[in-house]
Amino acid sequence: MRYAQIFRYVLTLNEDEYQERWMKPYAEAIAAVPGLIRKTWMADFETGTFASVYIWQDKASMDAFMALPAIAKVAAEPFLKDLTITVLPVHEEASAITRG
Questions:
Q1: To 10 degrees, the CA torsion angle through 47, 33, 27, 96?
Q2: Which residues of the chain have pLDDT under 70?
Q3: How far apart are CA 57 and CA 79, in angstroms?
Q4: In the β-sheet with 3-11, what is the strand arrangement from edge to edge?
Q5: Which of 14, 90, 2 is nearest to 22 (CA)?
Q6: Which of 27, 58, 75, 93 is least buried, going by the fewest C-beta atoms within 10 A?
Q7: pTM higher than 0.90 for the full model?
Q8: 3-state secondary structure of 91
């Protein structure tokens, strides 16, 4: 069963800093994580509000990712605030209809 994670957070970065301090250090490493189907990055620089949606092949892959030491490093970034993470199983039947 696939799982989804929705990360919502505030970043105190401008667009250039976002590229250098958020995207570049983490995007390639995240892309290489076993079991990750996709991650979508969302950014509203006007409000400083950001989100990411991860889709995982299974709960074990998601749990292994969350247990990585790098996750604690990301969570400790001084420019990251108000992080909330929602975890839900993917409803496969409904998602198939909407190309999810």
A1: -60
A2: none
A3: 30
A4: 36-44, 49-56, 3-11, 80-89
A5: 14
A6: 93
A7: yes
A8: coil
**CATH code of the domain occupying 3-91:** 3.30.70.100
Domain ranges of the chain: 3-91
Tokens of 54: 């991860």
pLDDT of residue 78: 97
pLDDT tens per residue across span 48-73? 999 999 999 999 999 999 999 999 99
Q: 40 is written with which tokens?
A: 């979508």
Structure tokens at 23: 């995207």
| Distance between CA atoms of residues 42 and 64, nearest Å | 23
